[in-house]
Amino acid sequence: MEYRSLGSSGLKVPVLSFGTGTFGGSGPLFGAWGNTDAAQARRLVDICLDAGVNLFDTADVYSDGASEEILGAAVKGRRASVLISTKAGLPLGDGPNDAGSSRFRLIAAVEGALRRLGTDYIDLFQLHAFDARTPVEEVLFTLDTLVRAGKIRYVGVSNFAGWQIMKSLAVADRHGWPRYVANQVYYSLLGRDYEWDLMPLGADQGLGALVWSPLGWGRLTGRIRRGAPLPEGSRLHDTASFGPPVEDDRLFRVVDALEEVSLETGRSVPQIALNWLLRRPTVSSVIIGARNEAQLRQNLGAAGWALTPGQIARLDDASAVTAPYPHFPYRRQEGFARLDPPMA
């Protein structure tokens, strides 16, 4: 397993990490993903560690904390061998302080996560969403307090806009508070919006991308094909409305390209889609998930090999979309591109 620095930090993380959204799955979203119990989770953790995958990602909102509880049980007795990433900030209840990033909410969220995980520290704590109602200074001072207390070691964000990250980094620098080193983002061959602003920001400011839903919300599993109905049992029957939308023409253009490369390489469609992400700038780790051992072993096969430049170019072309303003002149006109050439 290859390891990379998490952004500009000194923390090394595996290029593939494991997402625990299926652990204890309940409700319309997480219940459709899977319902892994503690014994099954421990077996999946065993397989990950055998493959060199030691970073496990969860969140308090995943099945109302059940994911954290089961992950904690699965790593019990080997805490020093794993890295735990969790997130907080999305609503956990209807009360006025049950959501957001206030000092009240963050301290309670970290204490709750530590209790559910059965640990006394969190390796990476991320804000799950930007809280526009809480001053950035309050958020960052609280995170600094938690770092100094030894309860969290590194901080990051997820689902932030570029200006929200930059404002936070400026405030952190002004006061000497911890800087965000991770940005957990949606990125896939079907969703390349990350490339316009957040990728250059990450490269400039030292944020490593932790990629969620790298298979395009379950659309790049190899089971969806042009001219065929949505497979029976696909989670998309129940969860498509929760995830990012994709136009059919673009979906099948990407699927066709993946199947073509699959025939050339002997690799599966999801392995190729994941490997493409591993070659992208700023990506520190791609978060894979699995309902069972077979899916996990399949996804682990995405590391340790490389697509050819020609294959990457074909996947780039099949997944390309028109850049939004103000980015499109830099992609279309030589004069603009000389000033700010594309990263990828």
Tell me the series of helices and strands, N- to C-terminal.
EEEHHEHEHEHEHEHEHHHEHHHH
**Second CATH tier, the architecture:** Alpha-Beta Barrel
Which band does the percent of strand residues land in? Answer: 5-15%
What is the level 1 CATH name?
A: Alpha Beta
The percentage helix is: 40-55%
Number of helices: 14
Number of domains: 1
User: What is the CA-atom radius of gyration, in angstroms?
Assistant: 20 Å
**CATH homologous superfamily caption:** NADP-dependent oxidoreductase domain
Number of strands: 10
Structure description:
With 344 residues, the chain is α/β, with parallel strands linked by helices. It has one domain (3-307): TIM Barrel (Alpha-Beta Barrel), CATH 3.20.20.100. Helices cover 41% and strands 15% of the residues. The chain has 14 helices and ten strands. Strands 3-4-5-6-7-8-9-10 form an eight-stranded parallel β-barrel, surrounded by six helices. Strands 1-2 form a two-stranded antiparallel sheet. Strand 7 (152-158), helix 6 and strand 8 (180-186) form a beta-alpha-beta unit. The chain is globular. The mean pLDDT is 93.
